[in-house]
Amino acid sequence: MTSDKPATIAASAGRMSAEHFGSVNTPVYRTSTILHRNLASLKAEIVDGDRKPFAYGRLGTPTTVSFEQAMSALEGAARTVGLPSGLSAITTAIQAVCGAGDHLLMTDNCYGPTRRFCASTLKRMGVETTFFDPGAGIEALFRPNTKAVYCESPGTLTFEVTDIPAIADMAHARGALVLMDNTWATPVYFPALARGVDLSIQAGTKFIGGHSDVMIGTIAVKEPQAKQLVSFVNELGLYASGDDCFLALRGLRTLPVRLKRHQETGLTLACWLAARPEVVRVLYPALESDPGHVLWKRDFLGAPGLFGVVLKPVSQAGLAAFMDGLKHFGLGYSWGGYESLIIPADFVRTARPFKAEGPIIRIHAGLEDAGDLIADLEAGFARMAAA
Q1: Torsions phi, psi for 98 (to 5 deg)
Q2: pTM for the whole thing?
Q3: Residues 22 and 170 in one domain
């Protein structure tokens, strides 16, 4: 019996127990060479009526297949490919659909390395990029050679919500594909493919892995893009290792449970921070005061505990005093693990400036007790005032 409930899919999809002596978890396969029983088997594409499942380590092992099948079930995808990192998934997805002479529409609130890739490598490849305001209409920006629209919602660091279904309708009417970095919400809180996205991208390093111990990315696609994507990934020689897929699949099993806890703690912290005198506003679409709340409520099924905070103007020394003494928040990049993190937010915008009255910080609410996290931040504000 199958289920369309994310919690059931995350816990059960991709299992290969029958093939592995009843083991609940598919073991880690570390292999390059796979031996075939005879010459006909080695050369044939079809064996015993079925396509050869495993021919060479880079092309897939039971571990990678288990993870990719589980992700496909969660995404509602025809096919998912695993890649070495989230950034690898981003750049591979773009290159899989854009080539020399093509035009790409890129959201202005994208991940910083995505912007740099467009400005450097993609430009060198002959693909022109136009950055668009995620909160404005993009009809006038389409060109005859516009191949794809790339979205990130909410956007990195500023957390603006984009109307993905509207963009998908505009893009598809003009023969363009829609790509989306859906790492913030994951398929649990935003079913990207069901909302009109053609290529759904995940930095599995974050919430899917969940333990800050794996680097992995995924691209999930609908049937029309499946063959092209798989061929492109194979031609580039890209793959995710068995160890990384095992860790990501382990994390996937508890993803809905962890996201719920992240959301509960994140909302608690966001509401507390919004009332602080040191804070101008909190950038978190789950708050009714957020400009993107209406769109978020319409299209999303939840919000994890990752958000931004705009502080009132403060000196660098004051900001350092606030952050350097924190006990439960680590100062580190990435997010999605069990530990809470905090960083200052630095970003580039070109389509429309993002105005902030003071410094912006980004907070990832981990799995610690919310009261302990609030006490930690409160002590940090006291240090800021003293500085």
Answers
A1: -120, 140
A2: 0.95
A3: yes
